[in-house]
Amino acid sequence: MGCIGSSQARNESGVKRKKIRKPKPWAHTEPITRAQLTKMREEFWDTSPHYGGQREIWEALRAAAEAEVTLAQTIIDSAGVIVQNRDLTLCWDERGARYELPRYVLSEPTNLIREQGQ
């Protein structure tokens, strides 16, 4: 049961849904360049369907991870994703498949190195 000021809302079927938010700041284990971060993200998204779940949900999660928060919320709601962690690090689909996203696909690290020419 939530209180009146709860950050959760109900969808059309009456199921509570969490409003998503940007992830908390994080730091990579060592300073990282934009190119390295992009490579890590591409490798994750290329292999994500192999972790299980539905390809369509992985595509929705990627679109949400790359969008602003309000658009991301719409994408998540439209895809029927059940958000366990408001920062999207842990989600489920309506069939019960688990989707775990690393922070590096959701936001920038605090120790991102600016490459020359940027």
From TrEMBL:
Biased composition (Basic residues): 16-25
Residue intervals of the DC-UbP/UBTD2 N-terminal domain: 17-115
Polar residues bias locations: 1-11
Pfam family, one: UBD
Alphabetical list of InterPro entries matching this protein: DC-UbP/UBTD2_N, DC-UbP/UBTD2_N_sf, UBTD1/2
Domain of life: Eukaryota
Region described as Disordered: 1-30
Name of the protein this chain belongs to: DC-UbP/UBTD2 N-terminal domain-containing protein
Biological source species: Microthlaspi erraticum
